[in-house]
Write the structure tokens for this entry.
Amino acid sequence: MSRICQVTGKAPAFGNAVSHSHRRTRRRFDPNIQRKRYWLPSENRYVRLTVSTKGMKVIDARGIERVVADIRARGERV
């Protein structure tokens, strides 16, 4: 599963893990990605999205119909 949110575009960020002795090694900050099923009333079917928890809040605020329209406008298949 890709670790990129289909709604917000959030992807993993990279940085350093700093130990107590201050040695640095590379690490990865993953967004909280979930596979979620949403009912799309206009098409009378469910769509499965890979969304971050921030993306879920965006869907709650703007509505699933508008979010799916934006995703399709970008050229992604839903």
Residues 13-74 form a domain with the Ribosomal Protein L24e; Chain: T; fold (CATH 2.30.170.40). Residues 4 and 11 are 5 Å apart (CA to CA). The chain has two helices and four strands.
